[in-house]
Amino acid sequence: KQTSGNSASEAKTIKIGIDLELSGGVAAFGSSALDGAKLAVKEINAKGGVLGKQLELAIADNASKAEESTRAIQKLISDDKVVAVIGAATSGNTLAASTVAMEKKIPLITPSGTATKVTVDERTGKVKDYIFRTCFIDPFQGTVMGNFAAKDLKAKTAAIYIDSSSDYSKGLAKSFEEQFTKNGGQIVTKESYQQKDTDFKAVLTRIKDKNPDVIYVPGYYEEVGKIIKQGREMGITVPFLGGDGWDAPQMFEIAGNEALNNTFFSNHYSSEDTSPEVQKFVENFKKEYNKVPDGFAVLGYDSVQLIAEAIKNAGSAEPTKIKDALAQIKNFKTVSGTISYNETHDPIKSAVIIEYKDGKQSFKTKVNP
Amino acid sequence: MLKVENVNVYYGAIHALKDVSIQVNEGEIVTLIGANGAGKTTLLKTLSGLLTPKTGTITFLGKDITGIHAPEIVKSGLIHCPEGRRVFANLSVEENLELGAYLRKDREVKEDMEQIYSRFPRLRERKRQQAGTLSGGEQQMLAIGRALMGRPKLLLLDEPSMGLAPILVQEIFNIIQEINQSGTTVLLVEQNANQALKIANRAYVLETGKIVLSGAANVLRASEDVKKAYLGA
Amino acid sequence: MMRKNKNFIIGVLISLFIYLVIQVLISMGILSDFWISTIILISINIILGVSLNLINGFTGQFSIGHAGFMSIGAYLSAIMTLDFNLPFPLALLVGGIAATMAGFLIGVPSLRLKGDYLAIATLGFGEIIRIIWLNTEYVGGASGLSGIPALTNWTWVFIWMMITILVVNNFVNSTHGRACISIRENEIAAEAMGIHTTKYKVIAFMIGSFFAGIAGGLSAHMFYIINPNSFNFMKSFEILVIVVLGGLGSTSGSIIGAIVLTMIFTLLQDYPEIRMIIYSLLLILMMIFRPKGLMGTREFSFQLKKRGEQYGKHTSA
Amino acid sequence: MANTLLLDVKQVSRSFGGLKAVSDVSIQIYQGELIGLIGPNGAGKTTLFNLLTGVYEPSEGQILFKQESIGGLKPYKITQKGAARTFQNIRLFGNLSVLDNVKIAYHQRSKHSIFASIFRLPSHFKGEQEMTEQGMELLKIFRLDHKKDELAKNLPYGEQRRLEIARALATRPKLLLLDEPAAGMNPQETQELMQLIRWIRKEFDLTILLIEHDMSLVMNVCDRIYVLDQGQLIAQGTPAEIQLNPRVIEAYLGQEV
Amino acid sequence: MEYITQQLINGISVGSIYALIALGYTMVYGIIKLINFAHGDIFMVGAFVGLVSAKMFQVQGFDPIWVFIFSILLSMIVSAILGVIIERIAYKPLRNASRISILITAIGVSFLLENGGIFFIGPQAQGFPEIIPKKQYHLFGSIQLDSNQIMILGVTFLLMVLLQLIVHKTKIGKAMRAVSFDMEAAHLMGINVNTTISATFAIGSALAAAAGVIYGMTYNSFDPLMGIIPGLKAFVAAVLGGIGIIPGAFIGGLFLGIIETTVSSIGYSLWRDGVAFAILILILIFKPSGLFGKNVREKV
Ligand SMILES: Nc1ncnc2c1ncn2[C@@H]1O[C@H](COP(=O)(O)OP(=O)(O)OP(=O)(O)O)[C@@H](O)[C@H]1O
Ligand SMILES: Nc1ncnc2c1ncn2[C@@H]1O[C@H](COP(=O)(O)OP(=O)(O)OP(=O)(O)O)[C@@H](O)[C@H]1O
Ligand SMILES: [Mg+2]
Ligand SMILES: [Mg+2]
């Protein structure tokens, strides 16, 4: 019954599935990624599509639930006959979808599922050959920040404050800790919060009590913004550090420009980056949606670009060929950096470190893997 | 004063009142007797607007009040003291009485309350007590007092003696007569038919939703049929 | 009794027929994976609804912690198949039994509570269980357990669905079930009639939790992954909605509720932006127009002639 | 026949907050007696019933039923030991059929297990059938058999009262406690009830304790009467004695009866 | 010691926000015995109206104090109207239905508001203006406290007293309590039950809106799902204090805030909600109607 590929190649359009969090708890992530993906499809189609065919998105909402993510991708594959799927925004929901993708042999690219086990089977250690991602894996960002804290900021002690409901956050924290201690630093305390928490003063008081040189908060902007704001109000003046989850224009509104001074995070790209890809993307996105793209939007956009590139390289929209072409991607320029896949389907790309300064993101350094 | 013409009331499919017509004149005590489930309570609820008749008309003081919202009917002076006391258990005695005067805007509420207290001294003793903790008899006094606070022109009483000790039953009937003498017309529903007929001017007998007998109270009290069916003689 | 038996046999025959039709459609490849999974999801929701109905609808104990019991079944059965290589049916049973024990543990102290206080206590228990999973690295913490083998299929869910319906139905239509219902109707009177109310409340909780655990196990082995967030209090509310929408105290109602709600949710899949808006509007409308639920407290009967009469009143002789 | 002591209430008290609702009350009831309990509203009659049936625990004192102490036992245990009651405010299982109401009362005697019911073993069918048969018999006695499938809440008041008594009898009590069974009945209905009480007492070999404000009923059917006032026992004796007791007249009966 | 005091202050400040939301919750419950599940979402709508109007008034160049007063009033009015509309459309037809049916409707309304919010506003969190800049105070050296925290506690306390007065001393309050106990008898007093219930919803929703605006100002963010967790916490706080009892909600809120902060402050932040629920359950087992609830057993 492996007919989806054939029928698709005869069709006039190439259908790409979207399995994202469009309602429910983390709808914010999924809908940003969808905005990015839609923009990419629009641009590609405007330029004549891929292999002479227009791209078409088939959208399914996973309601921010693992079991619905499974069902969403089942629907995309069996009813919509897509040739590849983008999703989901979180590692957990991607894991749920990945089993179906593997079984049905349809390539799946997660824009932002950073957990290692998304592309590598945890139990067998085997690479899942149909699963790819657009984002970094967690360890890279943590390592980058671990070095930055110890070497550039000359920190001796650090506190780690993680989002315990997110594997992403845990992953970053783990590699940060490893790298930071390798550099001779000391972790004075490890604390955690949960998504949708709003008051962090109890734990911040605890952290303040331990007097760290830096505080690593690898979470998403919604909570991180509040953490930084409340921390500063409580008189914590040391730098806050974080990862790509920080990247959102709302950071300025939530935390406030002043509180954000002296904070740094690792990212795929900087919207202040002067490279033409980035500038063009930010401009187009603003034109389309009347807002500044956040990190999820960028990754959603790039995920579509990756699939389009793979189809082009493969010369065919057959799922297995797309998969092979994806694995071969080398030095492909995307908004979030230049991507080459390694053997575990993780993009090797440079990271940038960005500092928030006086109400702006300012590009600090670029770190190559 | 009150005129009920051919009223029919249903509970879903149950036809609870069938073509009921009664009349209450100013200054009277009229009593309504009948077996359990005859529809007495239903009739009173219909009069006070808690139920809406399917057909028929109710005229009170020359005004058609059929199907009018209950608070409006209360405003016009028809006050219903419901079956089972229904005092507001979580409110104090005094607050219950104040609620009785909820719609009144005049300044004489305080005086009226004093009057009620002197009629039921027991209530004065307990004015801060939660109504729910009163004994049955006290609650009944409160319910009547509360109804009187609305300055009824017509007072509907539904089984005021139910569950009361004999000594209180006596007292309640005395009170009803007193109230009547001070100018309030009363429509009384009672299981204690003997007593009710004793103090009433006229009476109606309700049987499975239909008025089957009516007339002067003393005549009915002497009637063999009534005796056998309701007085248990 | 004769009528009961006839009813029972017709019921079994119809169910078997449904089973076979769907099984044939599946083996012939006519039903797409998506629709198979929808049917399985409906069946799992039926198990959840019917079992919660025993607690909420029949026994009248306001519980909103069903997702907690479900999660116990899900996690334990998944651990059993993943780490202990237990055969699927056995793993399911382990999950169900663990959930039953939790139902017992939770039932005994909290059944002192009434109404909304019981509700919040059960909600709290559900959340505590979820937080325990969240903080247990062995079961994957926040990201949960993944790679659970896909062992659930139509046959298994069908079997468990039928067992649930039969057990709950047989229980409810016996003196023991009546004891539970009498607690719902008037606890003080029930006790005065010699009914050990605490015992029956706990039993209802245990039976309900057992099937919630089974449903959890089936669901874990259907969707490959479980994580604590799938079992938060919103999930408990979803199950409660099934029960109330179907009709508290009607097993057929829970079945219909599960079918209707799952189908609405599924059919709205194509309209992601307004999916939840329409879903919630429909929910409100259905409650306004059928405040007692789609079935009220009535049950299906295969004696179609009598339907009209039963509609009005319970008068069938 | 009035020789074996069935119920022995020894100086029982119960207070709510500061209020002593029942204070130092002692009552003896012998097998087969029909005893009245009267007293003004709020005297503590219902509270005493609640103490006897385990709804409340006595603050002080002892309650012996068939020589066994039952003070503080759970209501269902006391019912199982053979004391059943009706309630001042009717407490039927309103949404259940008349027959089911009675069958529930038979539950405590049922022998088939939950297991048997779930797996529909023969003992289930046998047990259920027995219950139905016994229930129907009882309903016949109370002239409710033609309404067996009616929902209890749809019955007229008088029939609800009868059903409550029938349901209490279904627990097979030795002692039956009736709380104002005639409330809300007219004199005619009260008389019918009186016949019924006399009849079941004989038929079921019952001992009955009865609260009632309707003096025609109390004075006619009771062997002896206890009078409570403000939680305390103020008098006891035969109806004739009670009717003439000045304390009772002052507190309860009033001048004319 | 300083540490403990600081954490206590933190706890009270979180708790007073829970208390603020719980007040409206408990009041609506007290009168119509409905767990108004949508309360948290009306709180969200209130926050949104506050957000929009604050931005609007700020642009007009009003003084921060006036911006605050105008926007909180506007948001209270809009939410009160919304509350009344919701009651009329979604709850009133179910007045004679079982309480659990109305709860399900309330859940439906809650979903509707949340997803309507996502649809019209977008799911992303956005900033919320501070409106009145916070002033930091320092006690005994390093213990830190800000003007906003003091304001919240003050406002919550005032509203609690005000609400208690409304319910217990005014005519409409008496009517509310009468309606809560016996609607039919209330009718017979000439009380317009519908108006009274509408008034209840209006006050409850206005309180939720005030809480929403203050919450937004405190945490500087808004999103359409922001009401879920505070709504749940407020419900827990209300139950803890004895649901339906206004001072109970206040104390319950503070208590919950302090428990949570304590758990976090000793390094178990992961278990915070678990411990809070466990304590709630324990309290309920020993005091089955909450801290302030009278354990009224049905009189038999
Ligand atoms: N809410 C209701 N729904 C359905 N039927 C009802 C309802 N209320 C009363 N009835 C029925 O309507 C009939 C008349 O009842 P009603 O209460 O008016 O009688 P009543 O004369 O007041 O009796 P009682 O002396 O017992 O108070 C009865 O058959 C009763 O069962
Ligand atoms: N659960 C309770 N809490 C507080 N007070 C109570 C409780 N139960 C009864 N009381 C009080 O105890 C006293 C006795 O009440 P009880 O119901 O026993 O009276 P009764 O003799 O049955 O009166 P009636 O003839 O009116 O039914 C009353 O003052 C009552 O308010
Ligand atoms: Mg009546
Ligand atoms: Mg009594």
TrEMBL record, chain B:
Pfam families: ABC_tran. GO terms for biological process: L-amino acid transport. Keywords: Amino-acid transport, ATP-binding, Nucleotide-binding, Transport. SMART domains: AAA. It comes from the Bacteria. GO terms for molecular function: ATP binding; ATP hydrolysis activity; branched-chain amino acid transmembrane transporter activity. Residues 2-233 form the ABC transporter domain. Belongs to the ABC transporter superfamily. PANTHER family: HIGH-AFFINITY BRANCHED-CHAIN AMINO ACID TRANSPORT ATP-BINDING PROTEIN LIVF. This is Amino acid/amide ABC transporter ATP-binding protein 2 (HAAT family). The lineage of its organism: Bacteria, Bacillati, Bacillota, Bacilli, Bacillales.
Automatic annotation (TrEMBL), chain C:
It holds the Pfam family BPD_transp_2. Its main location: membrane. One of its GO terms (cellular component) is plasma membrane. Keywords: Cell membrane, Membrane, Transmembrane, Transmembrane helix. It comes from Tepidibacillus fermentans. GO terms for molecular function: branched-chain amino acid transmembrane transporter activity. It is found in: Cell membrane. It is a multi-pass membrane protein. The chain crosses the membrane at residues 7-28, 34-55, 62-82, 88-108, 115-134, 154-172, 202-227, 239-265, 277-295. This is Amino acid/amide ABC transporter membrane protein 2 (HAAT family). It comes from the Bacteria. InterPro entries: ABC_transp_permease (IPR001851), LivM-like (IPR043428). The keyword Transmembrane helix applies.
Automatic annotation (TrEMBL), chain D:
Residues 7-255 form the ABC transporter domain. Pfam families: ABC_tran (PF00005), BCA_ABC_TP_C (PF12399). GO terms for cellular component: plasma membrane. Keywords: ATP-binding, Nucleotide-binding, Transport. Transmembrane segments: none annotated. One of its GO terms (molecular function) is ATP hydrolysis activity. CDD domains: ABC_Mj1267_LivG_branched. The keyword Nucleotide-binding applies. GO terms for biological process: D-alanine transmembrane transport; L-alanine transport; L-isoleucine import across plasma membrane; L-valine import across plasma membrane. This is Amino acid/amide ABC transporter ATP-binding protein 1 (HAAT family). It comes from Tepidibacillus fermentans. The lineage of its organism: Bacteria, Bacillati, Bacillota, Bacilli, Bacillales.
Automatic annotation (TrEMBL), chain E:
This is Amino acid/amide ABC transporter membrane protein 1 (HAAT family). The lineage of its organism: Bacteria, Bacillati, Bacillota, Bacilli, Bacillales. It is found in: Cell membrane. The chain crosses the membrane at residues 12-35, 65-86, 98-121, 150-167, 188-215, 235-258, 270-286. One of its GO terms (cellular component) is plasma membrane. Belongs to the binding-protein-dependent transport system permease family. LivHM subfamily. GO terms for biological process: D-alanine transmembrane transport; L-alanine transport; L-isoleucine import across plasma membrane. One of its GO terms (molecular function) is L-isoleucine transmembrane transporter activity. It is a multi-pass membrane protein. It holds the Pfam family BPD_transp_2.
